[in-house]
Amino acid sequence: MKAVRMTAPGDPEVLQLAEVAKPEPSDRALLVRLKAAGVNPIDTKLRQRGTFYPDQMPAILGCDGAGIVEAVGPGVQRFRVGDAVYFCNGGLGGHPGTYAEYATVDERFAAHKPVSVDFVTAAAAPLVLITAWEALYDRARLDGGQRVLVHAGAGGVGHVAIQLAKLRGAQVATTVSSEEKADFVRQLGADHAIFYQKEDFVASALSWTGGEGVDIGFDTVGGAVLSQTFAATRVYGDVVTILAPDAQTDWKTARDRNLRFSLELMLTPMLQGLTEAQQQQAQILEECARWIDGGQLRIHVGQTFPLAEAAAAHRQLATGQTVGKIVLIPDAE
Asked: Total domain count for the chain?
């Protein structure tokens, strides 16, 4: 089969199309013929700095996939050949990822693809759905009527977080960089768009909440944005970040405001081999599939690339200009 292999850490050019052996499904695994593979920031970080398993090179990146079950292991119970599935699995340098024509995934970590969307849209969804769900619902314990600040609302995680917050009855403010992105987030239900390049988002969030601050601040950017988010969040509020805090983080403001602070890394179950937690993530995807099919949740794909142009997809993601997600298509011309 064809797959994009990462031959060494470095620039996008280390991603090379190659012929590799087609995988075989183990006892509880599915062999999936991939129709599409999502591209995520974690892919570009692993490409730049090296994978979590540097002794297992070359590696096939890509956590997100959607496709058709072509074969099943003898212990599989939930799926049959011909089923359409989507999942977030592999791609961290150990288990091969989804930048390929085929991938295997334990049936416990896969979900039925939403029937109302194509494979490209489905492949864009898993990592960002799980991340936003865990951050807002599990870490911040979002409840109806709360006010939420979502950073980078037009991005992959951000555009899903807006919708999940609205589905729980929250009011949502979000940061954007252009009128085009502001229109996009409003279509998703955002109540207040903050043009962070032209205005102080802390002042805007405080004004929006009558000086009190938001109940939940969701940081998808990192760096100084995390510290500023502390100041935009009400006393006894919640702040969740998907990035590692840096040495300059303003913990004093977080302490003075008595904030509850959480870290969100949806890859932890995969990295730690936590089977039950991975099963719970698959259940998140099953629930989100129902919302997608019910027209309550939308996944936006900003751009697609053929599998052979994975390097170009990484370069595009690095620009920070993509609205929604980027997806690779294995069988594209």
From this structure: 2
